[in-house]
Design goal:
Number of strands: 14
Bound molecules: adenosine-5'-triphosphate, magnesium ion
CATH class of the largest domain: Alpha Beta
Protein name: ATP-binding protein
Largest sheet: 5 strands, parallel
Organism: Bifidobacterium amazonense
Number of domains: 3
CATH architecture of the largest domain: 3-Layer(aba) Sandwich
Structural class: alpha/beta
Shape: globular
InterPro entries: AAA_16, P-loop_NTPase
Keywords: ATP-binding, Nucleotide-binding
Helix content: 40-55%
GO molecular function: ATP binding
Length: 386
Amino acid sequence: MKEVDMVSNPFKPSAGHLPPILIGRETILADFNEALEDGPGAPGRLMRVTGPRGVGKTVMLAEFSNTVKALGWQVIAETARKDIVQRLIERLQPVKGNFRFTIDPSISVMGVGGSLGGVSYEKQHHIVDLSDALAIRLDELDKKNSGLLVTIDEAQSIERDDLTEIATAVQNMTIAHRNIAFVFAGLPSMASKWLNNEATTFIRRAQYEPLGEVPLEEVSEALRDTFQDTGLWLDGDPLHVATQATAGYPFMIQLVGYHIWRNANRRRNGETEAFAVTDADVRSGISSALTRLGDTVHGPELDGLSPVDKTYLLAMAQDDGPSSTSVIAERMGKDVRYASRYRARLLEAQVIVEKGYGWVDFAVPYLREYLREHAAYVRMTSSEEG
Ligand SMILES: Nc1ncnc2c1ncn2[C@@H]1O[C@H](COP(=O)(O)OP(=O)(O)OP(=O)(O)O)[C@@H](O)[C@H]1O
Ligand SMILES: [Mg+2]
């Protein structure tokens, strides 16, 4: 039996934090492990992890990092931002040795002194591109029989030139059979960016791992176990209500767990015997969780959208389930072609998902309820374009 931790809340309702139990991700973890075992060139050594906000993409990257670190591999974890290629190269700087890379995106020559194409470089300054930098690090790692994992989060935001260089490096390393794995995580829109770029033909073949909701039976089990490990008893009806409220959405699992745990822990007041979580703990915990979900996911999500996008969503929120795209157009007072432009934008932003031909639904749970509750405000901020 595990030691009972009387103080800290085990749930982690914050971006990228490993949850107490990683629920429902056995398949993708097995795919990744298999790719490591199968060695260089295995398809799973180039992976694309996608899904809506809060589904657990960043957590998967962290879990992969832990997996390879346990094997003695090195990890370079980056998030897409300006100059990501430069940052990657900087992080690949040799740890030992008396030379540093000089980075010039227009040159990809390594030398030991002299002048080339009007650019001079010194003995200590090797001019490299991303492929060179990776190759040098991998040479080092080969000596120790270990490998390198490169993860790139928010990959939908990689800028075009950086994407080209990264894609080229991935291709070079793979063709050269190097002991490396690349995992890209981001919103599904990254795929459409890769489509518009010739250099990305290769990484388009990355193994596709879409993350979605996790099964409620597993949520239920994980909630019960996590509470039990901290001396709290959550079972029966309260457990059922808590489980349903998560909708299998990972961020909501942590929020619900966190707030219910907090309520019960406050009541037990240092009590060390197994202490039962009540209906009231659960109900008030869910309500706090929903408020937090609205503030941290739904609110910011809507803020980033155009007025017409929001009008589209308000039209959807009138339905209790999936919405017919032609009915939405009607509600908006527009033709189907006009409405479909906004549907495409919202699909791309992963705010909505397709539910069969001509039907759409919200991509994250409770957005419908949030829109209804805040309809007056949302309508106000979506009125500029009508
Ligand atoms: N498999 C899982 N089981 C339980 N909780 C999880 C799981 N995956 C993620 N979480 C929890 O969900 C929350 C969101 O995870 P994470 O930040 O990885 O999502 P994300 O997909 O990267 O979101 P974003 O697109 O906003 O960056 C975190 O609180 C994390 O602890
Ligand atoms: Mg993330």
